[in-house]
Every structure is written in C-alpha cells, then in structure tokens.
Write a structure and sequence with these properties.
about 325 residues, alpha+beta, C8orf32 fold, 2 domains, four-stranded antiparallel beta sheet, 13 helices, disordered N terminus
Amino acid sequence: MRRTVNGPANQPTRREFIKFAASVTALALIKPAELLAEGPAKEVSNPLKSEKLPALLKDIKGTDAEKIKQLFELLKDKLKTVKSKYDDRPPRTVDETLAKGGDCTEFALVVLASLKHLGLEGGATIVHFKEAPENMDHMVAHASVYGNKIHIDPQAEKLGIIGDGKEYEKVSELTIEEAKGMYHRELGNHYFMKNKYDKAIEAFEQSLNFYEKDAYVHHKLGYLYQEKGKKSDDLEHKKKAYCHNKRSSELNPDNEKYKKNTAMAGFNYEVKLGEKSFNEGEYSEAKTHFENAIELGKGYVPKEHIEMIESYIKQCE
C-alpha cells in the first residue's frame, strides 16, 4: 500500500499536490477583489430608532385603521424617492431617510418605526416584480388590523397597494424584528461594492442575527469567506464558506448559482481537510475527505481536478 508522495513518475509529488490545492482554492465564482480591513462597520444597534418621529407623528390619532390611513398620507407626502447605489452611499437610518429621502427598504423601515411608535402591529413583505431584473426586489411594510394585512407603501398611489400595482411574486414575509436585518444587509452590500470585505462580513453577520433565513446573505457570506480563504489559506474560512453556501442552497434549493457555489466551496473545504490529514499521516481519514470532495463537486468541478483528487486517493490506499 502506498503512503508516500515519492513514487513513480505518473504519481503526483508533494509539490504538485500543494500547487494543485492552491489552484483549486483559487477557483473564483466571480472576479475576486482585494480584501480590505478598515475597522468595525458603522454600528446601528436598532435601525428603527428615531428622534424625529415623535414630533412628526404627534397628530395621528383615532382608530387603528384611521391611524394607518393618516400615516400613509403623511409619509407619501414627506418621503422623497432616491434610488440607492450600493457603491455610492450606505443605507440611511430612519431620520436620515426622513431628511434626505431613500429607497423602498429605507421607506419600509420608516413605516415600521412609525408603527412601533403608534403601538400598531405589523411586519414587512419582500416581493419581486415579474418585469424587474432578477436581483432587484421590493420591500414594503404592512400593518396588521383585526387579522388583516394592510400594505403601507409610500411609493404607491393608494394605501394597500404595493408599488405601481404590477404583478409580483412574494419572496418572503418578515416580522418587524426580522426586518431590522435588512438595514445591515444593505450595509453589507454597500461595503461589498466598495471591496471592503471585512466590513461587509461584519454587516452581513449582523443581518443574520435578525433574520437567519436570508439565503442571499448566506450566499454573500459564502463568497466573502471563500475570498478570505484564498487569501489566507485558512481552514476555518473555507469551512465558513462551505457552511454559508450550503445554507443558502437549503433556503433556496431551486437557485442553480447557489448549488454551484455550494459544490465548489464543499470541494475546496474537503480537499483542504484531506491535505491536512495526509500531512499528519492519517491516510484513511485523508482518503475519506478526498472522496467527499469528489462527491460534493460532482457535476460542477472540472474533470481534470476530479482526476487529480482520484490520484491522491490511490496514494492513501
């Protein structure tokens, strides 16, 4: 049984193994960017906190239904639509949105903060308009009155309508607490577009503290940890890359991109584990990890990489 890397010419050497493992780890799903560490991300413990709302909402009175109608009319006139460019500015707080305007997510957070102040129940709905680009969703807050859900979209013409009334598919329903995570998700997107990966990771992780079932955030974290793993060759980063990618696939099993990312991240992680075990002389364990890598990467990893791993399996026997 072979347990050495010094063998016949057709067997890969230790140097070839290291070179190959590095090349596998470097497989990028999108164009890599430089990792930047610039300290902690902008800290907003409660995205619904506001100093301006009490004065703004002081004249809203009546039944719950009347309060909701007054709130819609007030915010429809007050809020100015300003498209968000992730690479241009970070998401705005409630008070910043009231002063400068914002996008649908920022509007929804203003509405939710208002509902909390008025003592009303509610949540948020994320939808995808059928004619919109694949990566562009719309978030709108809603109030709950006697078991009925009333959407409050300041960008709509009427109370109870989402957007301009076009057909949409519901992506997810969020409680008010879960909706807080959307601020940190947008902050993560901002840092991601700025190539400030450490800050993006911190923001996305904070987002999951509010809403763990966000497949998109897990997908982003999977990529970010994959990048850190390529930079540092750190086993823990590769593990996190695999775990987050796997979770994104569990939450959105029909997304082919998420499936591919999961396969690649799992392959990279198991190859790294196999290399570690091989170096420690744990050949049976190394073989298991290499076999796991092949199984996880099946259908997505290039054939030549699978064949290379198969050659390492033979050296473990």
